[in-house]
Design goal:
With about 100 residues, the protein is mainly β. The protein is built from no helices and six strands.
Length: about 100
């Protein structure tokens, strides 16, 4: 994942709290096994796929020392999707 982060400075005047936002893009290895679709008793098999992934995040950082920060961050990560095939040969997409 390659990220770009933007630090928002001087938001809280003389406070040490530093908000930040960012975006990222990269690859994700998606794995699944024995997944059951609602209303069905037959599980799907297993598999894996590597696909395009993206993320967006935002948070707050507080410096505790010269080389130490504490932060709280929310991150949303998604993928373009992957093609799955069940044991009967039916295919569907998931992300």
């Amino acid at each position: 994942m390659v990220n770009a982060v933007f630090d928002i400075e001087n938001t809280f005047n003389d406070s040490n709290i530093e908000p930040f936002v960012g975006l990222g893009v990269g690859m994700a290895n998606l794995k699944w096994s024995e997944m059951v679709v609602a209303g069905s008793a037959a599980p799907y098999g297993g598999g894996s796929d590597t696909d395009l992934a993206y993320q967006a995040f935002a948070g707050l950082r507080v410096p505790l020392a010269d080389n130490l920060d504490m932060s709280v961050k929310y991150r949303y990560m998604g993928t373009k999707g992957m093609d799955m095939v069940d044991r009967l040969g039916n295919s569907f997409d998931a992300n």
